[in-house]
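Render this sequence as a predicted structure.
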Amino acid sequence: MNLKTKKYDVADYLDSEDMIAVYLDAAFTSGDTSRIAEALGDVARARGMTKIAKATGLAREQLYKTLSAKGKPELATVLKVMAAFGGGLRASFPGASGAGARPRTPTRRASSRKVA
C-alpha cells in the first residue's frame, strides 16, 4: 500500500474570520516577532497573496519574504496587511473597561478665581 502525504499548510485551515482572528491573536499574544510575521504570512496566503499585495500596494514577492519567520516587517507594513485583511490592531489591558468602552475624558476643574 502506497501512502501519499502532503505537506501541512496552516493556510488551508484558515477558512473563517473566527479562525483567522484566533490564530492571529495567539501569534500576537506570544510576543514572538518571527511568529507574528509568519502568522501574517499564513493568513495572507490563505486570503490570496496577490490580492493582499494589491490591497497594500506592496510587491507580492516582498510580502512573501517579509511575512515569513525570517522576515522583519515594519509596523507600517503590519498595519497595511491587517487593513487588507479587513481588520486592525487594538490594545487591551488587564482591568480595562472592555471593548468599545469610551476613553475617559479629563474633567475640568472649576477655577478658584472669582470673576468681577
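Summary. The longest helix spans residues 33-47. The radius of gyration is 21 Å.
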